[in-house]
Amino acid sequence: MARVTRGTTPKNSRSGPYPMEKLRKGDKPTTVISENIARFDERQHGFARAGRGELGPVPQREMARFVPKYPLGGTFARMTASLAPVVDGEVASSRAPLPEDPVALSQHIKQLGYFLRADIVGICRLPQYAVYSHDFSGKEVKLGHKNAIALVIDQDYRTMLGSTGDDWISSSQSFVGYSNTAFIACMMADYIRRLGYPARAHHAMNYQVLVVPLLVLAGIGELSRAGIALNPFLGTRFKAAIVTTDLPLEPDRPVDFGLQEFCRVCLKCADQCHAQAISFEGKVMVNGYEKWQFDAERCSKFRITNPHGSACGRCIKVCPWNKPAGRTHDLARWMVKNTPFMDRLLVRMDDIRGYGRQDTRFKWWFDLEDAEGTIKIPEKQARYAD
């Protein structure tokens, strides 16, 4: 069989629905990532600790129901969990006749991601510090793949407009991204294995890797004050899955669109965080990462025990980067990158125009709670109704 020729995929074609190719790229991320990083044990995740009772009896009791207590959240969680058996699998005994050019293969994989309806796709090398040391069950994680493919899905801007960020739709806003990226990642990993290369999908409930540093390395976004990777076109209004593989790929470069200075002066996520989990102070070095301090225990406890809704995404809701495409918002993005002395004014204008408030015209869902198998109207309603 003849081998596929180089150049089958246009190398200069726009890759997806957002103009990621226009962003300024650098050789290193805009926050320091040192070489002295201890691998993270997934058992130390806030949700795992809550399940063991380390965060108190109430979080332990609520841990199993904080997502499915909203009926749609339960549906998403069940569907996402059902993909667990197909995150990995047998690799074809022979390799497909592919081009030997990693650039062409990377373009092919990105176009596959967009064909499967990903919003943004990025590629990076897989550093071992981004691999968990142990999983939730305590099993040692051994993952030697060379590359990581990051897949991003929008959580839906219109629904975010209609929500408070921490009401009954909040867990489903997360899981619409989690479930869709899970499906895409499992499909992509299976396809790569059929080509003769090992590949594993990593998605909510089945991660073996830390997602945030991979998103930063893959050029999806910069690290924000909220501890989340922020993309200039989606803000933090997305969820991601990862495919790790040995398929030869060309890594993307980290992006720089002026976020570090913007997050330094903005402070809206810290001010609006009900858990008080986001720091108002400057950056610190934590386990080899330069970042704003984030209290994962406070965040986890609030999300699990939130009496006004299912989970929480308040920091995402109020972030000034949570905007759709448009001339005004595109101009603001340009100003953040090119006129950082205007950042405080941009934050002030965001407040004046009422962004971050709930717009009930876009509230399409019913507030419902599954209480021991009975669906009822929640006794405690959301706090905001602007």
Explain what the structure shows:
The chain is an alpha+beta fold. The protein has one domain (29-357). It is 32% helix and 13% strand. The protein has helices at residues 46-51, 57-62, 71-81, 102-115, 157-162, 170-194, 211-217, 259-266, 268-272, 296-305, 314-318, 327-338, 343-352; strands spanning 120-125, 147-154, 199-202, 222-223, 229-230, 238-245, 278-286, 289-294, 369-371, 374-376. The strands form 4 sheets. The chain has a 4-stranded antiparallel sheet with strand order 1-2-6-3, with helices on both faces. It has a two-stranded antiparallel sheet with strand order 4-5. It has a two-stranded antiparallel sheet with strand order 7-8. A hairpin with a 5-residue loop joins strand 4 (222-223) and strand 5. Helix 3 packs parallel to helix 6 (170-194). It is globular and about 60 Å long. The N and C termini lie far apart (64 Å).
Describe the protein's topology.
Layout: H1 46-51, H2 57-62, H3 71-81, H4 102-115, E1 120-125, E2 147-154, H5 157-162, H6 170-194, E3 199-202, H7 211-217, E4 222-223, E5 229-230, E6 238-245, H8 259-266, H9 268-272, E7 278-286, E8 289-294, H10 296-305, H11 314-318, H12 327-338, H13 343-352, E9 369-371, E10 374-376
Antiparallel strand pairs: 1-2, 2-6, 3-6, 4-5, 7-8, 9-10
Helix pairs in contact: 3-6
